User: What shape does this take?
Amino acid sequence: MTAYAADQPDSVERNTVLHLLQKVQQAERTMRKDLDDARELLKRSKQFVDFHINVITQTAANDTYVPPGTAELENRRGVRMFDANV
Assistant: This one.
């Protein structure tokens, strides 16, 4: 889009479009940084919660609850995370 606008003859509209494109690009960079920050915070929050669940239950927490009878890691260790006596 920027290349197309830059190829147009010099006019007020062209200059306005180029200025707005710069603003959009800056907003996109800002949003991308904010999104990356939010992803990192979510990752760290999950690690924090998993750690504390493991400490409280004295077992390694799986990401999801696995029903009895399945061959997942929770059933192999013999203790289900949410059924443990805390």
About this structure: The chain has a mean pLDDT of 78. Residues 2-83 form one domain.
